[in-house]
């Protein structure tokens, strides 16, 4: 294998092991076996398990999602909700995310890495979405992008990742209407 | 110790062990040691670790929270948000909840137990809150209690338990305004 291919193989193996056994039970041996490389290939790249997982996860989490501009706030919202919906339904993501969040409650380094990646992302998404809507005259000046992100992602995350309730067909549409009305009400 | 005291001591020990080491690393030995009882006292009550944790956690999760009737929807919302806020900031809860959710992604029995407790609760809370508000003429007939619960708990859960961002002083007030506007918009 080429050097770059080995790194890719290790990254994939780490993501699969995280999904299957979780951070607590993940071992360098199992990652090496799954990637088809020796343990030294791993230790040449990272000092230990924590370092390896932090770098790989923050790289994946930090990849910028293409921000939509569909021409209307309702369209942007529905698109972003569909992206989040798909991501949370993804087999690997739906196991890795809760697992790392549980580790984060015990390990400050994991907490900081995840939160830094999340904050950068959600700030960018919130500012772009709300900024576009204000420019189009769909939301009032002064709409709070931070509250917007909580209102857009929170209900969806709650339903799909916490209460795991079924999602009625018209749910995303209802949520879009609700979020738009909510944001109009919060501008000063 | 009396029989009932032993059960209480074991329950407390389980909750503390769950918070400290998580379900995956929790051992019957450590629970017995912390509770100051023999392992047989535990095995007389539960067949194994999964059974023990499921019964104890579903008992705690199923305890009914007193549902507020403050006389106004805004008041009810602010009270319920303060209750959730305090619960999510609680040291033990803030470690146990993400840990069990991570286990739930791998273990269907844990997932079902948690979701059953959550669904019963949130349905009762949603129906009571929204029902009261409709009776008072604050929300239109036909307001969806399920969407209401997602809009009330989701943003708060996202901010406090996922993105763990600081909460500005006027946040709960802004959220109350936003949720009220959102719900008015979703009635048919």
Kindly describe this structure.
2 copies of one chain form a homodimer. The first copy, chain A, is mainly alpha-helical. Chain A folds into 2 domains: 3-59, Arc Repressor Mutant, subunit A; 64-186, Tetracycline Repressor, domain 2. Helix content of chain A is 77%, strand content 0%. The first copy, chain A, has helices at 3-25, 28-35, 39-45, 49-62, 73-89, 91-104, 108-135, 145-162, 171-186. The longest helix of chain A has 28 residues, at 108-135. Chain A is elongated, with a radius of gyration of 19 Å. Chain A starts with a helix and ends with a helix. The model of chain A has no long low-confidence stretch (mean pLDDT 88). The interface between A and B is large, with 47 and 47 residues.
């Amino acid at each position: 294998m080429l050097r770059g291919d080995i790194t890719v193989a290790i990254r994939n193996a780490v993501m699969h092991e995280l999904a299957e056994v979780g951070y607590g039970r993940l071992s360098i041996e199992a990652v090496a076996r799954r990637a088809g490389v020796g343990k030294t290939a791993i230790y040449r790249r990272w000092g230990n398990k924590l370092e390896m997982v932090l770098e790989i996860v923050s790289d994946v989490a930090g990849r910028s999602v293409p921000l939509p501009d569909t021409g209307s706030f309702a369209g942007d919202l529905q698109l972003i909700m569909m992206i989040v919906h798909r991501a949370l339904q993804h087999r690997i993501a739906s196991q890795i995310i809760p697992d790392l969040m549980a580790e984060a409650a015990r390990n400050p380094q994991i907490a900081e890495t995840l939160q830094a990646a999340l904050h950068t992302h959600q700030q960018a998404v919130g500012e772009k979405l709300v900024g576009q809507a204000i420019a189009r005259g769909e939301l009032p000046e002064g709409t709070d992008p931070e509250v917007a992100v909580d209102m857009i992602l929170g209900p969806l995350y709650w339903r799909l990742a916490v209460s795991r309730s079924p999602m009625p067909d018209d749910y995303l549409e209802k949520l879009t209407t609700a979020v738009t009305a909510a944001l109009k009400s919060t501008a000063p």
